[in-house]
Amino acid sequence: MAKTPARKNDSSANLGFEAKLWLAADKLRNNMDAAEYKHVVLGLIFLKYISDTFDEHHARLVAGSVAKSGDYEGANPEDKDEYLAANVFWVPVDARWAQIQSRAKLPSIGKDVDDAMVALERDNPRLKGALNKNYGRADLDKHRLGELIDLIGSIQLADVASRSKDLLGRVFEYFLTQFASAEGKNGGQFYTPSCVVRVLVEMLAPYKGRIYDPCCGSGGMFVQSEKFVEAHGGQLGDVSIYGQESNPTTRRLAIMNLALRGIEADFGVENADTFRRDLHPDLRADYVLANPPFNDSDWFRKDDDVRWQFGVPPKGNANFAWVQHFIHHLAPAGFAGFVLANGSMSSNQSGEGDIRQQLIEADLVDCMVALPGQLFYSTQIPVCLWFLTKNKAADAKRHFRERRKQTLFIDARKLGTLIDRVHRELTDADLQKIVTTYHAWRGDRVSHSPRAGEGRGEGATAYEDLAGFCKSATTAEIAGHGFVLTPGRYVGAEEVEDDGEPFTEKMPRLVAELHAQFAESAKLESAIRANLKGLGYGF
Q: For the residues 503-527, what does the mean pLDDT come to?
């Protein structure tokens, strides 16, 4: 399979600016819990972003007003409608960053920020209920708040090429990562590691259509989907975004995260539990991308729910409730890619094996990927990726080959690089190995490198099984394994290159080495016994 030069890991691909800013901001945290501080910092970054974007458009309107020519001839720079027409948030005078920063040293700065957030939500309905308005509380150190405002104020627009949404969007995304790490297990509730999101997005290749995530966290799946579309020559808006999130504070992060990049999304009217209240009941999505809670035992189940087409999921584990919810919302030719705990591939408890069997016999499972451990902040256990589709028939328009009654298994457990003692990342080379294998098997060609114009078409790499890594298995083969979907069952052992040593020489050498190891073990055991006997322990 074709290879391209690998970039550095996600963690080291940034320019260093974000890391320095994080270290400075984290020093100002003092004793505040990371979960609280997250909303303080990210809210201010968002305020800076929309104020910078406003100022940029304000300057255009002023220029048009003075020049009395061009696109903004006769424009009124203080007319709210001029901004709404350009898809720019209207920022009232007292909420503009220059005004906020000028008051950063005053004891009233907390209330000033709260008032700014209230005014922004009042004048921009898309932001209703999304902003943190708790800066004036007594336990928030106002001196440190002022210092944080000055720090964020140091992020300047260098030129048009580095517009605020790019620079501040990167800072926002980097800070989300760092807060997820700081919060540990709880961080997984709002953040999916970017390398995992990239695998999902680049395998599904959502060029156009409706994208849905019913447990969207801070919206990372949507951001990466839009990045993918733009990187491959598409336009912002080629995809329609639909999301739902039960946690109200996490939902606010998602709204800010997307608004930061000018991405419009339908998150429903409010936060809501997807199983209790589906906010998009009639949606049939072209792509479902999700990272639902692992092995969730605290979930609401209605036994006669229309979504349980393949069996009623157990009350003690929501894994197959999520799977069936995704399938329920898929369009006839749609694809779903999502993260689940490894147990979902083999569990036979409480009817889960029967549900999985029905999914396989219905020919919905397109690909299974086993990932290495330590990728997530919320858990160190390894997880897997499921890829489902309702239609595996050949599709000339999308260059898909005939795949009915076939499933691809990828064992990626040996991939990834440790970035610290407890966290691992997939490198660009790892990601490409997984992604190109899937697209070669599927029959299309989709490059994950950001070069506009590359995509589906002729010249697709021919797929081949690779022992120890990937295997295309038939439904009959899967049935022979008891409908277990663990890739290791199918890919076999990696082939070891023959070193050319004759068998008649190799076997005596291996036997001699084994005897030597036993002899060393015996000596060690004898020494340990002697030492213990000297300490008064008898045998």
A: 64
What lies within 8 Å, CB to CB, of 181 at 6+ separation is 187, 377, 423
Q: Which residue has the higher pLDDT, 103 or 42?
A: 103
Q: Which residues contact 142 (CB under 8 A, 6 or more apart)?
A: 107, 109, 110
- Sheet containing 383-389: order of strands: 265-266, 239-243, 209-213, 285-290, 330-341, 383-389, 365-370, 406-411, 470-474
pLDDT classification of 94: cutoffs 50, 70, 90: very high
The amino acid occupying position 221 is M
Residue 428 neighbours by CB under 8 Å, 6+ apart: 6, 7, 8, 9
- What is the enclosing helix (H) or strand (E) of 324? helix 319-328
Alpha-carbon span 186 to 306, nearest angstrom: 32
Question: How far is it, in rounded angstroms, from Cα 454 to Cα 110?
Answer: 49
Cα–Cα distances (Å) from 282 to 153, 278, 376, in that order, read 44, 9, 32
Which stretches does DSSP call E strand in 320-392?
330-341, 365-370, 383-389
pLDDT digits (tens, 9 = 90+) for 50-83: 898 899 899 888 887 766 656 777 778 889 998 8
Residue 343 has pLDDT above 50, yes or no: yes
Asked whether the beta carbons of 202 and 433 are under 8 A apart, the reply is no
SS3 336: strand
Instruction: Give dist(CA 314, CA 463) in Å, integer.
Output: 38
